[in-house]
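COURSE: Structural Biology Practicum
ASSIGNMENT: Worksheet 4, Part C
STUDENT ID: 0417
INSTRUCTIONS: Below are two proteins. For each, the amino acid sequence is given first, followed by its structure token string. Answer the questions at the end about the second protein only.

PROTEIN I
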Amino acid sequence: MAIKSVSIRIEEEMLHKIGYVADYEGRSVNSHILVLIRENIKAFEAANGEIEGKINPDLNVKPTRK
């Protein structure tokens, strides 16, 4: 699977806060955002049916320290 880059515009305060949460979870901001995206896709598919294609949920994401 190819890894693609995406840049986003984000308010500085929001970036600091997501950085805090990511650090608390033992992840980089990038890895934490990937976790949030995967959780959102899972919730969407649970409500609306599976989207075609498979993705390994552990790809590029450090485990939480909890």
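PROTEIN II
(use this one for the questions)
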Amino acid sequence: MLAKRIVPCLDIRNGKTVKGVNFENIREVGDPVELGAWYAEQGADELVFLDITASHEERKTFPDLVNRIAKGVNIPFTVGGGISELSDADMLLNAGADKISINSSAVRNPQLVSDMAKNFGSQFVVVAIDAKLNPETGLWDVMVKGGRERTEKELFSWAKEVQERGAGEILFTSMLHDGTKAGFANKELARLSRELSIPVIASGGAGKMEHFVDVFNEGMADAALAASIFHFKEIMIPDLKNYLRQNNILVR
């Protein structure tokens, strides 16, 4: 059995780490370079850096920031935001990123997933899926542009499609759970894990240590991502890993 991964996420806007609730009410947290280095020291398994307004503002993620982050961490890190073509991914890889996360651009142009997997390898390609339960249809609608725009794609069928196109991992964020600290979308995560053969990273809803036990046991997730509880030191990563070990969950 592979060890479960703990992944802090740094949402970046205008060069600063920020955090919101349900993708709204954004406030600044700190410097992403300093935070990234601190998380690496704390024992995080990986890091995710998302330029949360790049797609909405139709601009590119800044490679100089990625380069500064890379110099300060010794663990894998994923970069997302504003990546719409192979040259963007190539630039960020050369700047020091270990993986690329694509979301809105993949929905607009699914062939991009195939091209990235072919050119860089599946292990390099993370497809992030932000989804929201539609109470009228009972389906999970895929959202784009930082959760601002609803699409016609549905969570489970879209996840299967990007897997077939060569994605190496899925990062699923439930917009209903994001920032609420009420627990992850375990039912949906478990279904994704059963239906896919690639790793699933859970995002949205972490509030206490028990939620991580639940997301690994009930949600069957391969990795759990969180932001505010780590940023504000409500949960320390060494303490969390000890707690998970006590609950018979394999961590590094």
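ANSWER KEY EXCERPT:
Q1: The longest strand covers residues 5-13.
Q2: The chain has a mean pLDDT of 91.
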